What does this fold into?
Amino acid sequence: MSDQKRNLLRGSNRAGATLRMIARRLASSVLLLCIMSVLVFAATQALPGDIAQMVLGRDSTPEQVDRLRSALNLDAPVWRQYLIWVGNLLQGDFGVSFVSRQPVFDILQTRLSNTVVVVLLSFLISIPLSLVLGVYTAVNADRVSDRVILFFGIALNAMPEFVLALLLVLLLSVQVFHIFPGVALLSPGVSIWMQLPKIALPVLTLALLQASYFYRLVRATMIDVLASDYVEFARLKGMPRRNVLWRQAVPNALVPAVQAAGTIFAISFGGVVVIEYVFAFPGLGTALADAVGARDIKVVQAITLTIALIFFATNIVTDLITMALTPPGRGGVR
Amino acid sequence: MNDNANKGKTMTYAKNGTGPSRRRVLGGIGTFAMGTALGAGLSLPAFAQDANTLRVAANGSTSDSLDPHRTRAQITDIIRFTNLFDGLCDYAPDATVVNVLAESFTPNADATEWTVKIVSGVTTHAGEPFTAEDVVYSVKRMLDPDNPTRGASLISFIDAENVEALDDLTVVFRLKKPYGPFRDIWANRYLRMVPRGFDPETAVGTGPFRLTSFTPGRESEFARFDDYFRGPAKVEQLVVVNVADATASMNALRGGQVDMVYNVPISEARIIEADPALSLVNNPGSLSIPIYMRTDVAPFDDPRVREAIRLIANREQMVAIALSGYGEVGNDMQGRTIAPCGDTDVPQRTPNIERAIELLAEAGQSDLDVEIATTSGTSGMVECAQILSEQARAAGINIRANVMDEASYIANYGNWTFGVDFLSDTYLPVAARSLMPGGSSNNTHWHDEEFIDLFEQATATSDEAERCNLIQEMRRIEYERGGNIIWGFSNTLNATGAHVQGVETYVSGSPFYHLRLVSKA
It folds into this structure.
């Protein structure tokens, strides 16, 4: 077989394997989503408190509560409520919020896009920052600079999100410097891209939290890779040190990092709740917190499912990137 | 990971000088940091403030609405509709009632028919004259049996079918039963007047501000209504922003993003008072935080047990700790003030642990072990339960504070044997809601024939002096044998920037409900 042919075959095989992998992952994601939907539904049913009572408040009469309960279909058996809900979901109908009477989709849409912007921007800062810091501290492992950066990294990581958020507010907004607005009061009707300074602090908080964890991971894998035989070999072969570092070491250190980045990305969507709250940012997290407080079940269900969906999608994407970085049969060395 | 195992090798690697130079990496970081700073610097003028725009922050949610009658009564809602709409009357800062859209109220002999004259020359935001027909429309809307409104129970004595406009400026109300404090009731914020054909989407009213935009859960904007009949507002524009968290509100105020914040944590009050850039608005509000005991089930159906708990409660300590001193000690009677009536002449109840132990022994409840239900509905609700639980130890009984989230608390509202609530209104409406059988907040399930009789008389008479005497009697009964420990009244704390002027403190209501008087220096 000619080399050209062999390469072609290998290519198509690899493409086939990738497709099969994606199909398998999609199938398992659908299954997991079904299980998630049951869990989410069960969890919202288990929330203490009565929705109708909560919507109507303290001054309502039992008759009003009963009337609302039947209007909201709350007196139907639980399994039927579930089937109706899933049926509507499959038709793309998220329902109407019990509390605000707005379509859940409308609430979700703006809130989700706001949160996506914050998470993406934080990623644009934290990923390059982590790579630079990770590589630098790995190369200088155990020197003073490494120790200092490590100290701050661990300190940041150990801090609860809201403490870091409030510290940044004190430092950059209300006490020491007055650089950024302390609260993300986005004007509705104006694109979030036109109001970027208002979200600077939430983005910075999230980016610092991500970087403080992510850079340590890059550092640890870099230290492993730098100690490996092939790096040693490349070095002994007389390859320029810059090439050894950036062409041999870094790409191999990236594989576990991509997986971790995926997880951090997905966790940021759920974990941004507290940060959003501190900054009164109109995102997915504050909407979820409001909805749980008001027992706005439809909104709670829609948001939790959305977050689950983001998790699954991120997992598939990181797997694909990992595959691209370590082609099978090439031992992970480029 | 295995940092330590590799330490030697890495060190060697670095020392051998194969890594990038420190200078280059530092340079990279520096470039990145400068880039970030530059990016931020370019977009700085984010919170420049306009002297003609008043920005206020308060808590609301996505269930925000513009309908003054059908509302979940979130603060943002109330701020919006009190500035968009007027009532026939309103509360002055000292809780006395003043006329707004009404010019005069005249009862017939037995207070079953009231004739109300409307101020002339009032126009709506749409430019239409506001007339008696609009009042009739509003009252019928409030009392619509198919679509209940928040204020309906306050005016249930009105026969909705027989409210009639005699001419453009005269309305006659025919009542189902005599009602004496008819004028006072119209100061209630849930009884605002709307023009005929009212649409909550456009929210056309007669108030000092007119709506320009509204995004539930986020922000609403208003422009000054130049033809407002009591004189135009001092600022041209009003913006109400939703901020759920009190700390975030304060940060927005400190950073100059808003001018006034409704939500102030009691714990921050002293700090605000000490800050020259801010001012604390310390409203001597009518908010009471009663600890209620169900009078119809054990153990509190025994008056001795109720009295024992009342003697355990150290009210001064509760006000000092639960309200950080921003409040007034209560004496187991509703109504922080019953102006224009004078004080009720009963001695201040103080702790008497020996007597409490005796009473508990007499009732056979020396080992009492009960749970007190509470939630953080307002500052002090959780703290007072925890303090009572501490104080109860001295008497050898066990009171366990069960702190719940609001939904769990509301789910069993009215059925808790022992719990904490909050109520804010003038005396008779509070009595109707919380001390009369069938009242929506009668958590004590109190049913006292003498009290009921006095209440009926007090609401029937239109003679103010007589009503005062009756109210004094009612309060005396509350003090002697009621089911509540009314340990204190909480001040309502707001904050503004020092540049904000024209803010008055209110006993009933809030300066946020009178924003036409506020200006910026």
About this structure: Chain A has twelve helices and no strands. The two ends of chain A are 24 Å apart (CA to CA). Chain A has two domains: 3-90, 104-325. Chain A touches chain B through 80 residues (CB under 8 Å).
